[in-house]
């Protein structure tokens, strides 16, 4: 993009390291994505988004701010985008997927911390991300111990608002959560100086629902065999959903789906229908974390679905009820929909386990890879319950706990290939 | 004839099969160039088997460096290969414990010899051959003699460290405090047995059990396992270190 | 202890491993405690309690059960003992402090988990701890990710009830916590088949307050110089508070305090007044975790206070308000007192930081050791904030992150002695 360097400079970005990062990320992208055979044409848009990842969208955000709008960074799918957009804001997912920035966070965070958090803190503290620098403030939540406590430190670098996500789903917790959603609405109104009307909120509910439906359509298509799209490409689409303009994103995803529908009709796939189909379940995978998918898909298998926050948990039904026409009803509809997400931060979280089993069937998975980030306690402990349930159903399961480094790639390849040998 | 090459992280093994029997094998270090090691091991095994390269109909590569060996017709992981090799030698085997230089693995087999589940160590070197090598150096004991040496101990030291770095320090301080070397070695073997044995228990231990990989040649580790798991390992008629390569050759014969 | 073998067998212990454990425990206790010089005579009672740790007290619990009373296992100082005892129950703190049982737990829990949790779960799995076997059910809570999720798994082995402890301390959180307390009261009533009356509850509030006051009195005495009691001994008393009979415990602590008061009057101490005084702050230390205290007190320094849950967080003022005479008022008083505890599971938790500074002054500490258990994310992340605040005050600070193994003892000794050299 023209003028990107000036923009970065004005933002205070560390230009030298930004160049290094973009170069490294570009190289990985080339290796991981551009060598895939038989890609849908519709991926062109997403390739383009990646090639401009630190330029076009941050520029749009800066422009939006210049026009008086707010830009709000988020880190979890429990923070409702509807409210941010209704207050004339732009919501952007800031989770980070690269160990490039660890060194910037190491002096203030413990080493035994989930890489997603360390990476995010590093990008902010090291001034490495135009997205962070484009934000007015960030919205954290209390979903895991690591994030909950790191917000307090984040607040030294960028104003940080914290939403409490409860830990059980009984009526008393639903009440607390609804209040948190209401408080967040007030916070957004105060920050933006906008009063959220039922009309606008209703519109934004529809907007975000449309994004969900587009993704759901994409995932529906992944139930076919042969698979019309690789797991890597579908993952990328899910990842981009977190920061692209929702209108554009939705229309581009729908276009892609039109093409994929044709493929399905013609029985055209990206790999032979005999390739083992894998359901990935667990922690989110944020750009440029394509590690697991890359190993799986260069070992002769294919990922058919992600039961993760960069996957089904992002758009999962039911969508927000669109019938209420008053603010209270709308906020309640929002609170209800979000509290239906099945993250391991809740106890118990047995619905998730039922859903994994259902997805394994619906997506015709030959096996499940349970993917966790190192030191993510909730997903790691929940594994034992998932294992018991899947064993009972006779669904093959492999557990992979890893971080963002490349040092275990060889070992992971052995494990994954061994798993594929076992299930084929 | 068929060949299997196991390019392990520390050691490369090759096996040549003639009429379904081991005709020759070789064991060489992989430390230099894994690709070269594969070729050298194959050549040596061919010589030992008294045949020519052209006689080999199919080659399967396995092990950490399997994809860097370019002459392979197919690659398979060592998980499948150790299972296949062990099953060939004894069809009663349902569990294989393979300890090599860098990894320790527990592999479950069904009646047909197919791998049905497995567990592996995480990144760290605790409970592997590399761990023992570092300790052998610190103790100034030959790797080959560690086993016999430890069997003389009647009072193994208790070692709390599983981390290679800390264990080395602990060993050094044990020497300084006058502990007998044989007791220290026996303690080290016990700590490997405990670590890998717990992994095996977690997977569900089923008899018969085979112990393979280079570390299986260490009689001290064998007996520590037998004590910790309260089982006897099934005897294996071939060198335990070549079972992975043997399995690869068997896979080649069916390819 | 032969006289208890039958009892242990009856409650289903793995006798062989239990013997090994008791033998190891006896040896450690001898090395750590009985080698101290100049101990107060009043410690004899506590030595006796330890020597009977799996004997006499278990016998009492079994007798209580035979008479129809309940035994409830707890793991956190946010679970109100007042309610358990008011329902005719006995509460025992079950946090695990031993390496011994950790391999048992690692068959179903991830290795990257706080040793306190692994140790406890391992005790249950391996049938090694008679307290676990004596408990009718467990009352867990949601204070950290590890515990929150481990309860779900433990529930397969022993019925486990979960209280939600909120994560912020705003009005909505206070409401939620009060509701959780009420739900817990109902749970206790149901389990015990009794109705908790205001009279009994009022009595138990007084009982628990008396225990708090006795401990507070002990800690007050530790502010003097020379120090009348070693840190190790004081730590042991705090640990025993979690499972001894509260009436007996309170009177024995008060007896000891009488003796210590005389010592203070006569200027008699356990160590020369020049020995560096250390405030320990951080994670709980459950029996037999005396690792840090032992290293510090065999390095020429002494511990004057523990800002931990096996320390000040257990009895910290204000005590429960004794004025309400109706159940609702009493429950509210309980909720208020407990929610005042300053655990790092809350965000923000700045009161704790102020308190550390206050304690450092009150106890005349020459330095603070920030003690965390490995993989305890909340305390580990909160360190950064504590560090900033203590640096500002010029209070020397050393961070120690460790587990229950002995493998790092040498390294810890070097670091602690280095710290002592630095501050003296
Ligand atoms: N005679 C022996 N006695 C004891 N140990 C031995 C002996 N021979 C080899 N070893 C051990 O075996 C290890 C190598 O075993 P192996 O060949 O199975 O490993 P690898 O396949 O290279 O490793 P990995 O499977 O982890 O990639 C060496 O680390 C060495 O310590
Ligand atoms: S995994 Fe849980 S905490 Fe993390 S983004 Fe998803 S919902 Fe939020
Ligand atoms: S992956 Fe787990 S530990 Fe990491 S931020 Fe998400 S919930 Fe927290
Ligand atoms: S440290 Fe926190 S979670 Fe642990 S026992 Fe104390 S109050 Fe409970
Ligand atoms: S020490 Fe920390 S991680 Fe361990 S149980 Fe307590 S709060 Fe949880
Ligand atoms: Mg090997």
Quickly count the helices of chain A. Answer: 19
Q: What is the helix/strand order of chain B? A: EEEHEEHEEEHHHHEHH
Approximate shape of chain A: globular
* Arrangement of strands in the largest sheet of chain A: 2-1-3-4
Largest sheet of chain A: 4 strands, parallel
Radius of gyration of chain A: 21 Å
- List cofactors, ions and other ligands: adenosine-5'-triphosphate, iron/sulfur cluster, magnesium ion
CATH superfamily of the largest domain in chain B: ATPase, nucleotide binding domain
Topology at a glance:
The complex is a heterotrimer, with 2 copies of chain A (424 residues) and 1 copy of chain B (255 residues).
Chain A: H1 4-11, H2 15-32, H3 43-51, H4 56-66, E1 70-74, H5 81-86, E2 89-93, H6 102-105, H7 115-125, H8 130-134, E3 137-141, H9 145-154, E4 160-163, H10 171-192, H11 198-221, H12 231-241, H13 246-266, E5 277-282, H14 291-297, E6 302-307, H15 312-315, H16 327-339, H17 350-362, E7 367-373, H18 377-393, E8 397-402, H19 409-423
Parallel strand pairs in A: 1-2, 1-3, 3-4, 5-6, 5-7, 7-8
Chain B: E1 2-7, E2 11-18, E3 21-29, H1 34-49, E4 58-62, E5 74-75, H2 78-89, E6 95-99, E7 104-109, E8 115-120, H3 129-139, H4 146-151, H5 164-176, H6 181-203, E9 209-212, H7 219-229, H8 243-254
Parallel strand pairs in B: 1-4, 4-5, 6-9
Antiparallel strand pairs in B: 1-2, 2-3, 6-7, 7-8
Helix pairs in contact in B: 2-8, 3-5, 3-6, 6-7
Would you write up a description of this structure?
Chain A has 424 residues and is α/β, with parallel strands linked by helices. Chain A has helices at 4-11, 15-32, 43-51, 56-66, 81-86, 102-105, 115-125, 130-134, 145-154, 171-192, 198-221, 231-241, 246-266, 291-297, 312-315, 327-339, 350-362, 377-393, 409-423; strands at 70-74, 89-93, 137-141, 160-163, 277-282, 302-307, 367-373, 397-402. Chain A has a domain at 2-194: Rossmann fold (3-Layer(aba) Sandwich). In chain A, helix 18 links the parallel strand 7 and strand 8. In chain A, helix 11 runs antiparallel to helix 12 (231-241) and helix 11 (198-221) runs parallel beside helix 13 (246-266). The longest helix of chain A is centred in the middle third of the chain and has 24 residues, at 198-221. Chain A is globular, with a radius of gyration of 21 Å. Chain B has 2 domains: 1-90 and 236-255, 2-Layer Sandwich (Nucleotidyltransferase, domain 5); 92-235, Nucleotidyltransferase, domain 5. Chain B has helices at 34-49, 78-89, 129-139, 146-151, 164-176, 181-203, 219-229, 243-254, and strands spanning 2-7, 11-18, 21-29, 58-62, 74-75, 95-99, 104-109, 115-120, 209-212. In chain B, the strands form 2 sheets. Chain B has a 5-stranded mixed sheet with strand order 3-2-1-4-5. In chain B, strands 8-7-6-9 form a 4-stranded mixed sheet. In chain B, helix 2 packs across helix 8. Chain B starts with a strand and ends with a helix. The mean pLDDT of chain B is 90. Chains in contact: A-B, A-C, B-C. The A-C interface holds A 108-110, 112-113, 142, 144-146, 148-153, 162, 164, 166-168, 172-173, 175-176, 179-180, 344-345, 347-349, 374-375, 377-378, 380-385, 401 and C 108-110, 112-113, 142, 144-146, 148-153, 162, 164, 166-168, 172-173, 175-176, 179-180, 183, 344-345, 347-349, 374-375, 377-378, 380-385, 401. The structure holds adenosine-5'-triphosphate, iron/sulfur cluster (4 copies) and magnesium ion (MG). Residues 114, 116-117, 143-144, 146-147, 283, 373, 376, 378-379 of chain A line the site of one iron/sulfur cluster (SF4). Magnesium ion binds at residues 8, 63, 78, 100, 213, 244 of chain B.
